[in-house]
Amino acid sequence: MNSRTAASKGTVIVQRRVVTAVLAAAALVVTAGCSSDDGEGPPFGDTGPPSSGTSSGAGTGTPSPAGAAEETPPAKGSVKVVRTVTEDLETPWGLTPLPEGGLLVSSRDEGTITRVDEKTGKKTELGQVPGVAPAGEGGLMGLALSPDYASDHMIYAYFTTASDNRIVRMLYDEKKPAGEQLGAPDTIFKGIPKGMIHNGGRIAFGPDKMLYAGTGEAGDPGLAQDKKEVGGKILRMTPEGEPAPGNPFGDSVVYSYGHRNVQGLAWDDKQRLWAAEFGQKTWDELNQIKPGDNYGWPVVEGKGDNAKYHNPIAQWHTDEASPSGIAYAEGSIWMAGLRGQRLWRIPLNGTKASAAPEAFLEGEYGRLRTVVSAGGDRLWLTTSETDGRGSPGDGDDRILELEVK
């Protein structure tokens, strides 16, 4: 019985691994292998030698406003796998909880959205999203619920078509038969560059009820520094797909730029935006996002010494992370690692990390794709062993319920 199968059959308490500053300093001299979007390896990425470095600790961030007291979370955390919610999912990517109960999960390669009963694990397919053209790392990716979901029952989705990446919204009518519960997609934003890699894909409504989208540069690094392009950016728009009021570049949806490939978006308890980003040869990043800031790609990867570019607050070698989803809970950002096959905790103190990141679940469940808050000290976490780069075993892929601190 492999470790993932064994772990799914009972409660697992995973011992933490604290990443020390000494190891972090040593990692600076190690050269990592080239990383694609979802992590190095076939069929889409290069296959250079993996690095042996470890993550760095806290980085430089923007200070908190004067007088804004911050409570430093405990230096050490823990993760308990409470249970396996459901199994046998195919390329799960987006995940969002419904206010009335249940979880919606997208299948990247099948182009379907499925509702999972979080109590019983029962799966009900809502339907297939028309126009999805899965290839490489593209397909049906991020999901989000309308900020007015209680009245409009709209689901937003980010997906790859034959020509681009786009964002649509669809009416969800659970009274209709299974497989026929999705209305026709209404495209609110299109023209995001597509490629075999670096398609971005994460969407989320912020505390301001505006829609944020993490995009990739589709393998063309020059797009990231061009503010007229929407690839390699974080976008901010109204629910109708228009530039949101107060955006930093006038009548543009661009919110921040200089990104390689953003697949993690989350807000902390002070409504500050955080984003996880795939690196190339050396450093994956966790960034605290400021409107209008330049995050460096392709000029800088990881931390640099040029004040023109916003440094990450933490960084990891690509074999330790290749980060996709992130969530905020219990004073920390929790970051799912694909190639790294682990869940990272980054404790926060304002806009800085208050301690070195800690790794959990290392190798226990394989590749980890999406993590979302389940309220309080609970998280939902999806595995990603069926995405073409994993080694799927019995039960893969699955959704886990975690208790964290």
TrEMBL record:
Superkingdom, taxonomy of origin: Bacteria
UniProt keyword Signal present: yes
Keywords in alphabetical order: Signal
Stretches for region Disordered: 34-79
Protein name, UniProt field: PQQ-dependent sugar dehydrogenase
InterPro entries, per database record: 6-blade_b-propeller_TolB-like, Glc/Sorbosone_DH, Quinoprot_gluc/sorb_DH_b-prop
Transmembrane residue ranges: none
Signal peptide: 1-32
PROSITE patterns (UniProt xref): PROKAR_LIPOPROTEIN
Compositionally biased residues, Low complexity: 47-69
Domain (Glucose/Sorbosone dehydrogenase) ranges: 89-389
